[in-house]
Design goal:
- It is a single chain.
- The protein has helices at about 10-15, 20-35, 50-55, 60-65, 80-95, 100-110, 145-160, 165-175, 220-234; strands at about 10, 45, 120-125, 140-145, 180-190, 195-200, 210-215.
- By secondary structure, the chain is of the alpha+beta class.
């Protein structure tokens, strides 16, 4: 465990003065947007050190090291999928260090986010870099309420580093497993009527004379509520 005065949870200003190695690509970019005047929802980043401490305190490091020989083309093998599923289950069953929970609880209380819906978003240390994006590889969770559920979602973010797709992408991009850690962004959930992602080039071909936009109804849209209602009836 960390015995220094290093903080575990950083607000946007603190995350801006940190590094992507601590707050991950998503966390660092959100902090930069906040710094330069864009409207970023209240929140901050649980640093990647917590992920590493979590693995160590739950005795998972050796188990994860055993995954190193797995090659990208083997991740869909049923035996490998079973091993990875067991790893994710052990992560979900693990205990986040109490000192981290206490600090997180204090900051979320100050930000008045403990009793509000939040988004809990993976922010891996190698994502959104010059050589890799990890877009859609790791999980994020929306509409999370209460500290207990936030802690569960944090562990789900950690577990998402050990899915077949995450392993395969790391192998493809040449990242060792121990070089990619998970920071976690925790931020107020915006009641969006619609949400989407815009690419300044075509992500399939790399053509820069095209803009690609992927969008859908937001969680608070009356249309999405109707669609969810129909799906639940079915």
């Amino acid at each position: 465990m960390n015995t220094s005065n290093e903080k575990y949870f950083l607000n946007w200003d603190e995350a801006f003065n940190s590094t992507a190695a601590q707050v991950g690509g998503k966390g660092h970019n959100l902090a930069r947007l906040h710094k330069y005047g864009f409207q970023v929802p209240a929140g901050g980043v649980l640093i990647s050190r917590v992920y590493r401490d979590f693995l160590e305190s739950n005795g998972l490091s050796d188990l994860l090291n055993a995954v190193a020989p797995i090659k990208a083309e083997a991740v869909m093998d049923p035996a490998i999928e079973k091993i990875l599923a067991e790893i994710r289950q052990k992560i979900n069953d693990g205990q986040v260090p109490e000192i981290c929970i206490q600090e997180l609880s204090k900051h979320l209380t100050v930000m008045k986010l403990v009793d509000k819906p939040v988004a809990v978003r993976s922010s891996a240390t190698a994502e959104d870099s010059a050589i890799a994006s990890f877009a859609g590889v790791h999980e994020s969770f929306l509409n999370i309420n209460g500290l207990t559920n936030i802690i569960k979602a944090i562990k789900d973010c950690y577990a998402s580093l050990w899915t077949p797709r995450a392993i395969a992408y790391r192998r493809k991009m040449g990242f060792d497993d121990d070089k990619v850690a998970a920071a976690v962004v925790i931020m107020e959930l915006i009641p969006a009527a619609a949400a989407g992602v815009a690419f300044s080039c075509d992500p399939r071909t790399g053509r820069r004379d095209r803009i690609a936009i992927s969008a859908n109804f937001g969680l608070e849209s009356r249309w999405s509520a109707a669609l969810w209602s129909q799906m639940n009836i079915c």
